[in-house]
């Protein structure tokens, strides 16, 4: 195990009706900038719950933070917050609203352009304090410092580190209004987050391995039920806890991490607008097929055994079976796993490889995922195939 230091200060407030406790968490007299997405919270009652809880506060609303939030939209929100004199930011929504809120709260007191903050990779502060009301389990943004922001003008998407939310309110009932496609993308994103931290090489930490495997097994069990069955409170609780645990730092103590699937996925989203979780379902199986011969072999065998129960056959067969099960899992929750199934072709691969060559990227736990490996991975992810399990259409 490597040395590590760890601190996660986010207070989680979890369960039914937890939004009603909001005012206990925000200082009396605070001027609150409320950030929202495209309007789902108006239709499912979350907006009403939030505004009821904040009746005593001076609030200013900003609407229209899009999925894969753009720096251009954040600039508008920053101007609104400055004019209001906001000294508290409350994000009400999914990862996109929360990520935008991280940039906005890092910019309100700064004279730097928000895109410069993103490109520097780390926001230094001072920050306006941030709280969240989470409406979709997926990113873990409610309990981490990460934020991913796009620039519409250049079709770029980059991550930076901002501040942790002071608190996050998680009421599983607010997820009942989520479309099946968003649920599926949330399951895929959480699954991918765990794999990014787990699927490197074994022998680093038994605890981190088993923790990650427990979360993967949980998603394997509940993922299809969450997507296809009517909402069930206990299942949604487990889903939300798993999604938060998947990316709040707890499963990464002292172990190396990969993240190359995310780096490639971000380019696909920036260029083609494919939903984040879906992009990962396309890239991950192909990445594993390429990287099994570049350092991931032993961990893939452990994963085959402990997560998919594959013990028969030679090593090569067990590894391919585990990757096929992974791809089959994504397909079983309604997500296609090939670029061609999403009308993405060679031109996009070329552009991503070109960008990665220019940036001289070296992603992954050993820095082995460069532009040439990305080319190989995306070509493996390209073709449709009749031998893959069928994908049941989501609504
Ligand atoms: O905008 P509204 O109308 O609210 O609709 C949203 C949006 O269309 C809808 N939605 C959210 N909660 C709902 C709901 N619809 C009905 N009922 C509800 N309860 O769902 C759609 C997707 O929302 P979004 O916030 O975009 O989804 P998600 O949470 O998956 O966030 C995706 C963004 O997070 C980034 C991604 O790259 C992407 O930009 N990520 C952030 C990470 C982080 N901060 O740590 C890590 C991740 O790997 C990821 O990169
Ligand atoms: Zn993700």
Automatic annotation (TrEMBL):
Keywords: Oxidoreductase. Residues 9-172 form the Alcohol dehydrogenase iron-type/glycerol dehydrogenase GldA domain. Signal peptide: none annotated. SUPFAM superfamilies: Dehydroquinate synthase-like. Pfam families: ADH_Fe_C, Fe-ADH. The keyword Oxidoreductase applies. The keyword Oxidoreductase applies. Residues 187-379 form the Fe-containing alcohol dehydrogenase-like C-terminal domain. CDD domains: BDH. This is Iron-containing alcohol dehydrogenase. It comes from Porphyromonas miyakawae.
